[in-house]
Amino acid sequence: MTNPHLLIVGCGDIGTRVGCGLSAHGWHISALRRRPEKLPDMFQAFAGDYTTGEGLVSLAKVKPDYLLFTPTPASRDAQGYRRGFSGAMGLIAETAAAESLRGGVLVSSTRVYAETSGNWVDETSALATNDPFASAIIEAEKIFLAQISGATVFRASGLYDGSPQGHLASRIAQGVFSQTGARYSNRIHRDDLATAIEFAFLQAEANNPLDGIFVASDDLPAPMSDVERWLAEQIGVPYAPGAAASGGGERGNRRCDNSRLKAAGFTFRYPDYRAGYGGLKA
Length: 282
Prior knowledge:
Blueprint lengths: L4 E5 L3 H11 L4 E6 L10 E4 L18 E4 L8 H16 L10 E6 L10 E2 L10 H16 L4 E5 L1 E3 L6 H7 L10 E2 L1 E3 H16 L6 E5 L5 E2 H12 L19 E2 L2 H5 L9 H4 L6
Parallel strand pairs: 1-2, 1-4, 2-3, 4-5, 5-7, 6-13, 7-11, 8-10
Antiparallel strand pairs: 9-12
Helix pairs in contact: 1-5, 2-3, 4-6
């Protein structure tokens, strides 16, 4: 029996982490990236831009068992989101590489939710209908789930790596705090998201796929003010809320429920922000 073959389209940080993890399990990894020289030597590298049909031509002879798609917007406007999410997913679904698939994972976003009042959301919660950015992501999810049997969609909240150089920690170190601190923030450590994706592929290969949509967020949604106050204490700077204008968290105001992912058997290494930022002592 041949080892499973995973194709990663848009292979950035998360894709690279997943590919390295599955390679250690004996999987063959192919990856598409605009700058393939940045990929690990163990990957079969392909150059291409997944937002164009021409950019996917290099995948014509690739026959993977599984697909990982980690889309990003082509630009920070509605058209860029359509190109990067729904448009790209439509193009990928039409490639020859999609014909051999028996599973896949799409990394989506909790931005798709309509909730703005701080209530809990899960996989069944209402989706945004008046946000063109969210609409592009939702359409990509629909195409992915319709095209791939046993597919998994991870709706990920805000990614962080817990290092002093990370966006939030470095901002707090400079004394820059949010003006929207009362809003709930949700996050998932990069290691946990990569491990959850790896878990999904291993489960699929064991004939126990994680079918459908899963919220990928840690155990502790928290007001951004709580997170920033705690970080300030760890870093050793005074907490001064509203000292400068800053978004300070993901759009919307919701608490993400990860119960379905945990019920599937996944265990978080960093179940809350305190664990994830545990190395930031002053």
